[in-house]
Amino acid sequence: MNHSRFLIAVIFLGTIACQTPGERGLKDEFQPDFYIGAAVNARQVDGSMASADSLLDLHFNSLTSENGLKWSNVHPQEDEFDFEFGDNYVKKGEEMDAFIVGHTLVWHQQVPDWVFRDQEGSFLSKEALQDRMENHIDTVVRRYKGRIDGWDVVNEAFEDDGTWRKTHWYMLMGEEYIAQAFTKAQKVDPDAELYYNDYNVWKPEKRRAILKMAQNLRSQGIRIDGIGMQGHYRLDFPSLDQIETAIEEIHQAGFQVMITELDVDVLPRPSDFDGADLEISYADSPEWNPYADSIPAEVHDKLVDRYASLFGLFKKHSDKISRVTFWGLHDGSTWLNNWPVRGRRNYPLLFDREMRLKWNTALFIKKNR
Ligand code: GLA
């Protein structure tokens, strides 16, 4: 923790329950600094869970669609769009007066295989795939025009070493697919902010490639407002310095910084990798599920300390960061219960399985310059 710049006092109360009148939420603690967001699933926005509703209302002023607006969910067949989630999601965000983010238009995961193929099963030509991509962007962005405030237009186009990820998008359309996606989104909703989003942006080679691509878009007059740094972090990794350098360099390059998918994995990893590559999947075993009953106090304390340090850093750079979004609402609904090992019990968020804040209204942060 960076005590030289900030005194960060985290008060652990353990089991603060629901909202009491006048209670300040996380969003209020960080109101002058950045939005506090949560990625939400279908049940958390359809009005059926009062507990999710009150948690969202009290603590968050931004929402991200966790899975519901990904291609495979919103556009499962060529002639079939499913907007049930999206409509509930945007309505919930508007009721909260939240900054609403659409995630994500063009990605290599959670996109059906038909997207890339013709009726015979052969890969599409560049032009045909561009048409299909533009039609998707047109339909989805248009439906929420003026209501979704920012879009993750392209997700995860680079490998960690800064080379292009060899996705179907890249292999069939070349690197221009990114320019075409941003151009189309801008045309359909000129008022929406447009972002590129990726994990391990703290890695210098990857960041360099992302910033080069983003600056290249700008030099062609194509709008790109910000770079989303997915914050899939671990208790001791990456370092605050690595994250800080990324924040500073993205800002210096002229882009808004967003911490888009924040969680802190407290469980061991079967092998040495980081990031959020969904291709990785191990079967559950007791060895990899050490806290199946509860989180030990010392691990909990490390989690508190990690979050305090991270928020100290984010606050220090609040002039550069527009939003900090948690990837999930509470420990019971985090993807980290199933990645990289399926069926574990993880504890990566600020809210426990009973949807109680693990600390009282936040990380109390006092500037001590
Ligand atoms: C990536 C994606 C998210 C989500 C997470 C983990 O980071 O951007 O949509 O799938 O992986 O679930």
Provide an overview of this structure.
The protein has helices spanning 26-29, 42-45, 50-59, 71-74, 84-95, 126-143, 168-173, 176-188, 204-219, 240-252, 297-316, and strands at residues 6-10, 35-40, 62-65, 99-106, 150-155, 193-199, 226-230, 232-234, 256-265, 321-326, 363-367. The longest helix is centred in the C-terminal third of the chain and has 20 residues, at 297-316. The strands form two sheets. Strands 2-3-4-5-6-7-9-10 form an eight-stranded parallel beta barrel, surrounded by five helices. The chain has a two-stranded antiparallel sheet with strand order 1-11. By secondary structure, the protein is an alpha/beta fold. The chain contains eleven helices and eleven strands. Alpha-D-galactopyranose binds at residues 103, 155, 199, 230, 261, 276, 278, 335. One of its GO terms (biological process) is xylan catabolic process. Keywords: Carbohydrate metabolism, Glycosidase, Hydrolase, Polysaccharide degradation, Xylan degradation.
List the defining traits of the structure above.
hydrolase, two-stranded antiparallel sheet, single chain, 369 residues, TIM Barrel, binds alpha-D-galactopyranose, disordered N terminus, alpha/beta, GH10_dom, 8-stranded parallel β-barrel, disordered C terminus
